[in-house]
Amino acid sequence: MEDRLQVADGLVPQKIVSVHLQESTLKALKGQASNEQAQILQRNPEPSVESKLEPDVMEHVCGHDLQALGARPAQGKDGGSGSEPAEEGDRGGGSVEHGHLHLSSCHECLELENSTIESVKCASAEKIPDLPYDPSGSLEDIADDISPDREGRTVNITGRAPNILFYVGSASQESLGRFQEVRSVLADCVDTERYTLYHLSRESALRDPWSDNCLLLVIATREAIPEDLSKKFTAYLSQGGKVLGLCSPFTLAGVRVASKSVLRDTVQNLVFSKADQTQVKLSVLSSGSVYEEGPGGQLSLGGLQGHLENEDKDRLIVQVPFGPRGGEAVLCQAHLELPPSSSVVQVQGDFNLLKSSNARRYEVLREILTTLGLNCDLRQAPALTPLYLLPAALEIWDPLMQWLGRHAGPEGVIRSSKLSLKFLPSYTSDVEITPSALPVVTDVESFFSEHFNLETYRQNLQTQRLGKVVLFTEVTPTTMNLLDGLLFEIPPEMGLIAIAARQTQGRGRGSNAWLSPMGCAVFTLLVSIPLRSALGQRIPFVQHLMSLAVVEAVRTVPEYQDIDLRVKWPNDIYYSDLMKLGGVLVHSTLLGETFYILIGCGFNVSNSNPTICVNDLVTEYNRRHWAELKPFRTDELIARTVTVLEKLIRTFQDKGPNGVLPLYYKYWVHSGQRVRLGSLDGPEVWIVGLDDSGFLQVQQEGGEVVTVHPDGNSFDMLRNLIVPKQQ
To answer: Which residues belong to any copy of the BPL/LPL catalytic domain (predicted)?
Structure first.
C-alpha cells in the first residue's frame, strides 16, 4: 500500500482482506451488480463507450467511470489530482496516469464495489483474520521486513500518515546494519503504536512524495549528502519538517561540521541542556566531528545543546530552527544511536562508562524526540493474564490436586486479604481478570509460553522442596501478592514459587518501584524457616543468601566463573561495583514456631536497556576473550537460583554464618571500601564485614568496630553513605 492508497475524503485504509463467498452468493451478487451497473450507465454521458472499447483503451476511461461510481480522485495541495505516473511495470499495455486506486475495467470496479459492500455487511470484524505479511525485495524494501504491524496506526490532523523515515546512505550491507541499529534505538524511545518506521532510499527520496507522510526524517549516514538530495531535505524543512541528524555531515546554513580526529571513537563527558534549561551529564562515544559557526553570520540555536566537558567546550549537539513554518533540525555528533556493546567500543573501561550512562543516553534521546514533536510517553500497561499451575515434579501433582480439593471450596476459590485465586480446568475469554481476582488454570497440557519453558525449568531445578510448584503468568501486577492466600496453608514440601514474564507494579525497597520488562527474571519464592534454627535466629541473612544465590547460579556454570556478577549489601545484585541489575525483597511472618518468608527477586537476564543485564556481561566477555558462551534463559536462571538457595540455606543451618560468609565475601563489592557515616561530612570508616546478625560492620579510625544498618535507601554505595545502627 506504501501509505499512499486513499479512498474518498482522504481516508487511509488500515487493512485489505479477502473474503471467500459461496457460489450461490456470487451469482446473486453478479446479478445485482449487473442491474446496478445498467442504472449507472444510463446516467453516464457516454454510456456506449464501455461495450466498444478494447481492454487497454478501457484503462484510459476507468478513472472517469470511478467518478460516476461516486469515488473522487485524491486532491493534491494545489487542488488538482494527486495521482502520479506509475512505473512501467505497472502500466499494463498503455501509458496512462493512474489514480490512487486503479482497477482494470469499470465492470470489475462495479463487481468489486458491490461484493465488497455486501461482504463487509455480512462479515463480523472478529472473524476477519490478521493476514500474514510476506516481505520481499532489496534494501529499498527492508523497512517492510522489520516494520511493526500497521494495525492501530493513527493519522494526524493534517491527513498525513505518521511515519519516521531513515536515510542511511547508499544501498549496501553496511547501510542495512546502520538502519537496523538506528531504528532499534528509536523504537525503544517512541510509542511504536503511533508511528511506523521506514527506510528511505536515495531513489525513493528523489522520486516519491515522502515528505507528505513524514513526521521526522532521521539522517544517519556518514557519507556526504548528494546535492540533489540535500535540496530535497532542505525543502522538507522549509515546509515545517523535522530532522534528526545522527553523526551525519548534513548541516544547515550557519552551521558547519569540523573534524577533530583526536575525539574520534573516544568516550567523552557530555553536558546536555534540555528545553527547560536543566542539564544531564553523561558519557558518550564521540564521532570525531564537532559543530562550529559557519559562514554567514552569528549562529541562531534552539534550547537543546550539548557540549563536551573539555577546554574548548566542543559542541556535539545543536538545535537549529529553519524557516518561517516551524521547521527545525537537531544535529548530533555523539553516537547516541550505538549501544555500549557496539564493536566500535574496544576498551573495557569505555564499555563500563557507556553502560553506566545508558539510561541517561535514552533520557537525552527522548528529550530530543519530544522536542521534535514525537510522543515518547510510556506505553500503556499490558493487560493482565491468567495464572497457570505447573508441577516441576510430576509426583507432586496428585497430592497438590487433593489439597486444592480440600481448601479451594465448592467454587474453586482461595481468598486472602490481597486477592482471590479461582482455580479452573481451562480459561475462556469471558473469565474476568483483575488485580484482586485472578483465574488459575490447572490444565498443564494447554500451557504454552514463549517466555517460560516448563521442561527447561525442570531440568535446571535440583531441589528437595523449593520451587516444586509453579504459578506462572505472562503479566501480573506483582508476584509478591500471588502467594498471599497460600502462605500458611500449603504443605512446605510443595515448595511454591510464583513467576511472571512481566510485572506492571513491581516493588523495591521502601516505596521504590522495580521495573520488570520482558527479559527480566521475576519471581517470589515461599520458604519456611524454623524459629529455633541457625537461620531462624538470624532472619536478616535471608536477603544476603538470595542475592548470593543469583550470583552463584551464573558463576558456577562451567566457563562462566569470570562473569563479573557481584553482591552489594544488603540486597542487590551488581555488575562489578558499577551498576545494579537485580534486587531482593523479603517479607517474613512468624506464626507459632515457624517463619513464613516470601522472597521476591528480580534481575535482568536479557533486557539490555536501559541499564544492563546478565547476557550483556556474557556478550562482553565473549568479545573480550574470543569465547562463545551462550546467553542464559530466564527460566533456566530462576531454576538454578532456587537450587543454589536451597543449598545455601542447608549450609547455613548446619554451620551458621561462617558456613556462607567466605563465599559472600568472595563476591561482594565492599572489600576495603571507605565510606562516611551519616552524611557527607561524617567520619570516614572502613567496611570490614558482616556481624552475626547480617548487619554491616565498619572500623573507625581509632580501631573501634561498629555495626551499621540500611535505613531505606540511606546506604548509597555511589555516595558512600551509611547510618549507624540504632540500639
So the answer is: 455-653
Average pLDDT over residues 47-75: 38
Whole-number Å distance between alpha carbons of 113 and 279: 58
- Cell numbers for 146: 522489520
Helix, strand, coil percentages in the chain from 3-state DSSP, rounded to 5: 30, 25, 45
Cell of residue 497, nine digits: 514459587
Cβ burial 460-486 (10 Å sphere, 16+ → b, else e)? bbebebbbbbbbbbbbbbbbbbbbbbb
- Residue 440 to residue 421: CA distance in whole angstroms: 6
| CATH fourth-level superfamily of 387-667 | Bira Bifunctional Protein; Domain 2 (3.30.930.10)
Residue owning grid cell 531462624: 536
For residue 45, how many C-alpha atoms fall within 13 Å in the half-sphere facing its CB? 3
Q: How confident is the model at residue 10 (pLDDT cuts 50, 70, 90)?
A: low
Contacts (Cβ under 8 Å, ≥6 apart) of 419:
435, 436, 437, 438, 481, 482, 484, 485
Is there a shared CATH topology between the 163-372 domain and the 387-667 domain? no
Handedness of CA 677, 680, 681, 686 (dihedral sign): positive
CA pair distance 509, 716, nearest whole angstrom: 13
pLDDT at 706: 84
Q: What values do phi and psi take at 596, rounded to 5?
A: -100, 115
Give Rg (Cα) of the chain: 32
CA dist list (Å): 483 to 46, 198, 303, 413, 521:
77, 45, 51, 13, 17
Cβ atoms of 452 and 461 within 8 Å: the answer is: no
- The residue to which cell 531513489 is assigned: 203
The 3-class secondary structure across 444-512, one letter per residue, is HHHCCCCCCCHHHHHHHCCCCCCCCEEEEEEEECCHHHCCHHHCCCCCHHHCEEEEEEEECCCECCCCC
d(C-alpha 176, C-alpha 139), whole Å: 7
C-alpha cell at 6: 486513499
Nearest to 426 by CA among 413, 411, 414, 442: 442
- Calculate the alpha carbon distances from 336 to 263, 267, 319, 567, 689 in Å: 15, 12, 15, 30, 41
| Domain positions in the chain | 163-372, 387-667, 673-724
Please tell me the distance from the alpha carbon of residue 108 to that of residue 30, in angstroms, as a whole number.
Answer: 11
Q: pTM of this prediction?
A: 0.68
Burial category of 336 from C-beta neighbours within 10 Å (exposed 0-12, middle 13-18, buried 19 and up): buried
Q: In percent, how much of the chain has pLDDT > 70?
A: 72
CATH of domain 163-372: 3.40.50.880
